[in-house]
Structures are given as C-alpha cells and as structure tokens.
C-alpha cells in the first residue's frame, strides 16, 4: 500500500484535498515443476506444492496466462489444462511411420512451447528416422490437430550459400535429431530449420517470411522482434567451440558470448535488455565441460557469471521469471544427466539456491 499525503502538489501548485491511498495486489513467484517420476506440481519459491498431473508426464510448458500443457507419452496424448475454470483437453499426437515403430506409436515430443499469444502450442516431433518436424496446434479449435510447419532436413547439409566444412560436420553430427525452434513475437510464424539446414521464418499461412542461415541452434526472439538469439560456430576455431550471437533485424550479427569459450542455450529476457546463456568454464576439460549460467546486458555489454556448479556438476536450461528478477536452471550430474535438481538465482547476481522441491525440470508460472 502507498499513501500520497496532502503535501503532494500538482503542476499548478495545488495540494491534494485529501490523502490518496493506492493498494497493490501482488502474488509471489511460482513455477510448474516435474518430478523424477513424472508428476507435475505447482510450486512456490518457498517449496509449497499443489499436484497438477501425473505420474507419467513427459515434456510440459506453461503459457503466459498460466495454462499448462503436457505430454503423456504412454497414451500418445497432449493435454492442455486451463488456468481458470474449464475441463482439460486431450489432443491426439501424430504417429510415427510404421517402419519406425509399432503401428500407431506416437512421435516423441521435444521442445514443447507456448507462443506469446497464449493460443498456439508448438513442439518438435521426432519421427523415428533421426529428424524432427515442428508442429503447431491451436487447442481452442473444435478438433485440435497438430500440423507440421517444417520439413525434415536432408541428411547432408547444404544451402543456397556455401557452408564451411567445419560447420557442415557440426550440423550433421551435433544438430541432426536434436533441433530447436522459436516462435515469432507476433505468434504468426516460427523460426524453423528448412530442408537445406538454414533457419527461416515460416509463417503459419504457408509463406516464408525470411532466411537467417545455417546456425547450430536458435534460442528465442526478443519481445519486439528486433533480434533473434542463435548458437553459431566459428569455422576458424579448431576446437569448434560454440558461440552465442544475436541476429539483428538489419541482417547484422552481434556477438553476445565471450570468444574462446563454448556457449549455448541463449534466451532473451522479457524486457529484451539482457540475454542469459550457458558458458563453459575457462580452461576446463573439453571432454566433459562444466557450464555456468551467465548473462549479458545488451546496452552496456556487461557480462556476469551467476552460478558456480560443483565438481562433477553442470548447469542447464536457464529460464527467466516473468518479471526478469530470477533465473531458474537445472543442475545436472555430468556422469548421470538424469539426476537433476531445479535451482534459482537472482538475475542481478547473488547466491544461487536449490528449489526446496524434489524436481528435475521447471517452467515459470504467472
């Protein structure tokens, strides 16, 4: 609550005739987390929980309005649970071709995300031959059906522009079968990989709206679409270390991460002023590198390391809270990636702490 007293004056010098009381109604930060046995819980930062679904939940995502979508792999279904009143909707997932599994077996879902409009869900579907297709679905439709908006990339990378041999090798060995995509800020299209391995902006109306190039991965777009975060490779680097770049609207590449350090998994803050990403520790072993959460202020160029994983640990999957005050991330055992914990760190720096809930993954919830 804030009170403006009668000593406050307007531009003409007139005082208030009576105090003005302004009340703010706020709600603490919350997350939706997944446990090791596939239960979905809504959790506060203090550790209070509410069961939402499970066990047996796979990929999951939370919209800006708080709607929760999650995959039930054993049932071949995508479930959408609204934040407000209303029944959950079950959407049948596409199936793999018969030659890649039992007849009727659902595709494997990865990278489940909501678009900014809160009406569109996108995901990568593994078809069984090593490639992924990007699908979108509108849960509000009478009969919601996932529709592909990308084509599987060819086994050998190629594009309209020459691709250096080192980048071709990285694309074929690192990317194939583990791709990424991103929604456009207007929710009318997505940044997807084309058959020739270049990232393009594919409109949901079927029209291609732009070409970026053959990057290793895409993070997300800045809120107003001025930049898109990508993971690139310097062909001149003999160690093939990844770097985070921002593709500006004018077609210029802007370096985000420090040179000489393997970096990946970029995400713009909701205000678009900072980028979070993962960067390898300098001088660490190349076989099993440790990654820490770092941020860059795009206005000042200030780069800050926020986390310090212990020996045998590495950090993964950084995500901004809705107000950009916190960053959640997964702390993973390097020799046992399935063993993970959800951690939190203040975005402006401070002590990282484990979420007091036994969870292996998390998404922020309004």
Account of the 3D structure:
With 366 residues, the chain is mostly beta strands. The chain has a domain at 36-148: Thrombin, subunit H (Beta Barrel), CATH 2.40.10.500. It contains one helix and 30 strands. The strands form eight sheets. The protein has a four-stranded antiparallel beta sheet, with no helix packed on it. A four-stranded antiparallel beta sheet has the order 6-7-8-9, with no helix packed on it. It is globular and about 75 Å long.
Q: Summed up, what is this model?
A:
With 366 residues, the protein is mainly β. Helices cover 3% and strands 43% of the residues.
How many distinct beta strands?
30
How is the quaternary structure best described?
single chain
| CATH topological fold name of the domain at 36-148 | Thrombin, subunit H
Q: β content, as a range?
A: 35-45%
- Rounded average pLDDT: 87
CATH architectural group of the domain at 36-148: Beta Barrel
From the spread of the alpha carbons, the general shape counts as: globular
Supply the helix-strand structural class: mainly beta
* CATH class label of the domain at 36-148: Mainly Beta
Helix proportion: under 10%
Straight-line distance between termini: 21 Å
Tally of helical runs: 1
| Biggest β-sheet strands, sense, barrel | 4 strands, antiparallel
List low-confidence stretches: none
Radius of gyration from the CA trace? 22 Å
Question: Strands of the biggest beta sheet: in what spatial order?
Answer: 5-4-3-30
